[in-house]
């Protein structure tokens, strides 16, 4: 599952290996997808990379980083933030706060299961 897109400005081909021994082959003007949270954090810490996390990547990083349950994360969000998140995830955003939270919790649970399988 795509958590982010990473770009490295190189003039010619370049190979980058992350601490998890994943290898990324960058070519000039090329962006690569990252599906590992560890790799995402590796690229974010280094200044030579331009990292664009996906909505799922941001959400998963927040959940894993703080060891919070989906309910805790979502309860801390305002209604407008939940609507924005729902819209970006393809969930109907014009629902009550309770319904929106339930739909987002389902998405977060599915995301966690997918990440556990990686």
Key traits:
single chain; 118 residues; alpha+beta; 2 domains; three-stranded antiparallel beta sheet; 5 helices
Total DSSP E strands: 5
Rg for CA atoms: 16 Å
Please summarize the sheet with the most strands: 3 strands, antiparallel
Specify the number of helices: 5
Mean pLDDT: 81
Class by helix and strand content?
A: alpha+beta
Strand content: 15-25%
Strand order of the largest sheet: 4-1-5
What is the straight-line distance between the termini? 9 Å
SSE pattern: EEEEHEHHHH
Structural domain count: 2
The level of helicity is: 40-55%
> Uncertain spans, ≥5 residues at pLDDT below 50?
none
Choose one word for the global shape: elongated
Set down the secondary structure blueprint.
Blueprint: E1 4-8, E2 14-17, E3 23-26, E4 31-34, H1 37-45, E5 49-53, H2 55-66, H3 70-76, H4 79-88, H5 97-117
Antiparallel strand pairs: 1-4, 1-5, 2-3
Helix pairs in contact: 3-5, 4-5
Short structural description:
With 118 residues, the chain is of the alpha+beta class. It is 50% helix and 19% strand. It has two domains: 4-53, no CATH class; 56-117, no CATH class.
Description:
The chain has helices spanning 37-45, 55-66, 70-76, 79-88, 97-117, and strands spanning 4-8, 14-17, 23-26, 31-34, 49-53. A three-stranded antiparallel β-sheet has the order 4-1-5. The chain has a two-stranded antiparallel ribbon with strand order 2-3. The longest helix has 21 residues, at 97-117. The protein has five helices and five strands; from the N terminus they run ββββαβαααα. 16% of the residues are buried. The mean pLDDT is 81. It has 118 residues and is of the alpha+beta class. The protein folds into two domains: 4-53, no CATH class; 56-117, no CATH class. 50% of the residues lie in helices and 19% in strands.
């Amino acid at each position: 599952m795509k958590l982010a897109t990473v770009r490295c400005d190189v003039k010619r081909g370049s190979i980058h290996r992350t601490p998890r021994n994943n290898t990324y082959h960058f070519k000039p003007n090329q962006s690569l997808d990252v599906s590992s949270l560890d790799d995402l954090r590796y690229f974010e810490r280094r200044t030579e990379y331009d990292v664009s996390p996906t909505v799922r990547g941001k959400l998963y990083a927040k959940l894993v980083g703080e060891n919070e349950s989906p309910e805790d994360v979502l309860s801390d969000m305002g209604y407008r933030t939940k609507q924005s998140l729902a819209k970006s995830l393809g969930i109907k955003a014009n629902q009550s706060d309770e319904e929106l939270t339930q739909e987002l919790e389902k998405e977060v649970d599915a995301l966690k299961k997918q990440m556990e399988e990686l």
